[in-house]
Amino acid sequence: MLDSLFEQFDSIVVLDTETTGIDCRTDEIIELAAGRFTQNADGSICEQEQMDEFLFLSEGRHLSQIIVNLTGITEEMIETQGTDKETAAKRFADMLGHGSTLIVAYNAQFDLCFLYFLLQKFGIASALKGVKMLDAMTVYKDRRPYPHKLCNAVEQYQLKTQNTHRAIDDARATVELMAAMEQEQNDLENYVNLFGFNPKYGVSGPRISSIHYVPQGYDRTQKLYEMTAAT
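User: That's the sequence. What structure does it adopt?
Assistant: Structure tokens below.
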């Protein structure tokens, strides 16, 4: 599984976050989950490392009821089970240090912007330097019509892992989704460092310098990478 990606990369790190809100500059991560995957000789995928951490809230920060209802995460859970941000940031950065690495996330622009600000706070954002990135949502938008939430992808591909708005479940669902989309059409390598965005709203958050951003509407007539090659 994911053969074309493992031909290029030693490890694939699948990432998901839950946050206090949607602004990566002022909000913060409350749950960070990631798995580092490699490929066995028989082509199967092996999970080498996993992290799933609640991150302590900054002093004076509280969760809105909307976030509690959406994620099921409460302030009590964070206080009793949480990890300090620096420990979690360093642990994630260490996951990237195993040869050539690809980071994958669903709606990766959101997660990666939050991740950057977390790593930057502790002076380790350089861990992201040279790391390639893939947005599973960009691929899914080229495969299926609107709507394009992760729960829609889970339903469309009848995945075993359900989208729960908990970071570890959503990361696992993303791995399953990538494998299912590869079986459908083996072109995932064409989406590396290529992010689609809604042309009505533009790119959400600060642009990542290594990413090529392309408008991606709901009515697809070409794959996004085909449009890019034609320009």
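The CA atoms of residues 8 and 100 lie 8 Å apart.
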